[in-house]
Recover the amino acids of this structure.
């Protein structure tokens, strides 16, 4: 069954009405805008660093902090913190430098004191860094090397081909293992506001050909005519669906989001990442497309493509907030390079199109020369931000997505996405 336009309009109208109801009791008009910032793990390995992050986020009038707690098959949190049925053998991250410190617990406590939502940012299928020394010490590489994906020539992936080794989503044991990690985090930290999935994809079009995956595809091909890339999409989507089901069991009000490729055609064809399908089926609450292109024309094209999806309120645009070489984002510091002037202009463009919010990547880039303070004065002034009610939004999504409607994408072009009528 296809989704009629009326159904999509009703979905947006109900969500808008609920947000308006949530804002009653305030004396001014509130903007239910997500203002998020991604925090890399090197900025969270001491209490003092986290204190500064929280203070800066509050000063810059942000609403959500995306804290990276699983970098590359490691833990910037306490594993098995409470008795739960989700075994998690991953070691403390080397980024902690051997300190007996739990960044996630500390950040949760401090963020909630300041009315900030905190999301556990989890790197999923990217298992190792690229540094050869770190690879040799990596848990997955040393304990489960057979999970690393293969290319179409039946050769194991090279770590330098992407951002380190990826484990293959088509291996059932891989998915089970990762779900245990997520389950352990959610059980151990019930105060979490959200789980944020990253690298929830294949590394490239020519990878994913692990012998187990190829065998499974051949067996399933007997009953279907799907291409191998369609089969890859099913593997990633299945994991997202299982994550949603797990969270609905453990923490029904938690927000599930995913960092995704901003070019939807590339997301599907290269990375088997059908994030629009995840949104439409209610598997994730928000998609965070990483619209990092320096080319303004390309950035605007990607926004037009996303507008055509007609799910603006569920899309939080990830914006580039760094310069290469750790150069400042302040204007006139590096001549004509990308600066917060352009970043502020992009924020206003995103707002004008009614997207769900903005996420800045990353805090590290904005901390140079205190560019975040300057950006806040340019782009985050004079607006009061409503704290979104997780339970309200989650229950609405569950109700609207329980109809079982067919939400498959028919076609993708450079600027549009075709959805069944």
């Amino acid at each position: 069954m296809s989704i009629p336009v009326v159904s999509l309009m009703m979905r947006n109208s109900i969500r808008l009405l609920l947000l308006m109801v949530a804002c009653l009791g305030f004396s001014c008009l509130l903007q239910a805008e997500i203002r998020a910032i991604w925090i890399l793990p090197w900025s969270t390995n001491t209490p003092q660093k986290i204190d500064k992050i929280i203070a800066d986020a509050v000063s810059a009038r942000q609403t959500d902090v995306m804290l990276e707690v699983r970098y590359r098959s490691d833990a910037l949190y306490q594993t098995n913190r409470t008795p739960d049925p989700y075994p998690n053998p991953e070691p403390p991250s080397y980024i902690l430098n051997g300190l007996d410190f739990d960044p996630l617990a500390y950040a949760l406590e401090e963020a909630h004191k300041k009315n900030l939502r905190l999301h556990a940012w989890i790197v999923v299928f990217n298992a190792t860094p690229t540094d050869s020394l770190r690879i040799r010490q990596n848990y997955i590489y040393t304990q489960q090397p057979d999970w690393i994906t293969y290319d179409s020539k039946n050769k194991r992936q090279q770590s330098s081909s992407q951002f380190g080794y990826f484990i293959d989503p088509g291996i059932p044991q891989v998915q089970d293992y990762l779900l245990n990690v997520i389950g352990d985090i959610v059980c151990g930290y019930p105060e979490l506001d959200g789980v944020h999935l990253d690298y929830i994809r294949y590394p490239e079009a020519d990878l994913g050909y692990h012998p187990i995956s190829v065998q499974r595809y051949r067996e399933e091909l007997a009953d279907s005519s799907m291409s191998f890339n369609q089969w890859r999409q099913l593997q990633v989507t299945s994991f997202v669906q299982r994550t949603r089901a797990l969270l609905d069991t453990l923490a029904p009000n938690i927000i599930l989001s995913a960092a995704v490729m901003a070019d939807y055609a590339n997301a599907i064809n290269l990375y088997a990442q059908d994030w629009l399908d995840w949104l439409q089926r209610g598997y994730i609450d928000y998609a965070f497309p990483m619209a990092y292109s320096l080319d303004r024309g390309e950035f605007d094209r990607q926004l037009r493509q996303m507008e055509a999806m007609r799910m603006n309120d569920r899309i939080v645009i990830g914006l580039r907030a760094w310069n290469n070489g750790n150069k400042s984002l302040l204007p006139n510091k590096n001549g004509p390079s990308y600066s917060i002037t352009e970043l502020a202009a992009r924020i206003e463009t995103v707002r004008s199109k009614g997207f769900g919010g903005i996420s800045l990547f990353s805090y590290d880039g904005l901390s140079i020369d205190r560019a975040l303070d300057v950006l806040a004065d340019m782009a985050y002034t004079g607006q009061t931000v409503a704290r979104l009610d997780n339970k309200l939004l989650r229950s609405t999504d569950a109700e609207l997505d329980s109809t079982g409607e067919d939400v498959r994408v028919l076609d993708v072009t450079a600027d549009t996405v075709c959805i069944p009528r």
Remarks:
- The first helix runs from residue 5 to 22.
- The chain has one domain: 33-388.
- The two ends are 9 Å apart (CA to CA).
- Residues 1-31, 395-421 have pLDDT under 50 and may be disordered.
